[in-house]
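User:
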Amino acid sequence: MFNSLNQIVIMIVPLLFAVTIHEVAHGFVAWKMGDNTARAAGRLSLNPIKHLDFFGSLILPLILKVSGAPILFGYAKPVPVNFANLRDFRKGTILVASAGVVANLGMAIISGVCFQVLLRFVPLWSESILQPFVMDLFLMLGFSVVINSILAVFNMVPVPPLDGGRVLSMLLPEQLRVKFASIERFGFVLVIFLLVMASDRLFKLIFFFIAPLLSLLLGNDGIKFLFG
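Assistant: Predicted structure:
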């Protein structure tokens, strides 16, 4: 369907925008809840360059792609948030942590609608001179659905520093919350281990949750087209 270099580009572009919208959502909600840190740092921008993390946004996705891992995953530089500035610490923290997941779900839905429109009108563009451009856009939209769905589900895993871990910590009694939050310094290592060393099992777990979403947004024909 496409050569490996083109495939990497088609998958990396929606990944960059997915992690960008995820981080911007965190910063925007924090701003609305009383913390101006991300806005003052210029991080409420949809320009991916402002959010790129060299390892998380470029190297890690390439490693996963080249190694044949079933998950294409990446992350951006976390937006700075001073949770102490939030008007309601517990509620604000939950909303800020959840914002990225909600944004990715929204992007998945928007991409899915556009994907379905192009899929419906394949006969109109498949034979036109615009076919190469529209095909790349079509595939990017499809992978945008997949990537945003994976990011939304993966970030809700209840392990700090993932969003699910932060939400869970706010739901725990204070003493347990402090103990649970203390594992955050090891959380990043655990996340990388899961992605690189246990990606098959992790993918099966994530796919269990995103399968209904992909079926709804891509349809059976879309899934077959993307994955054969």
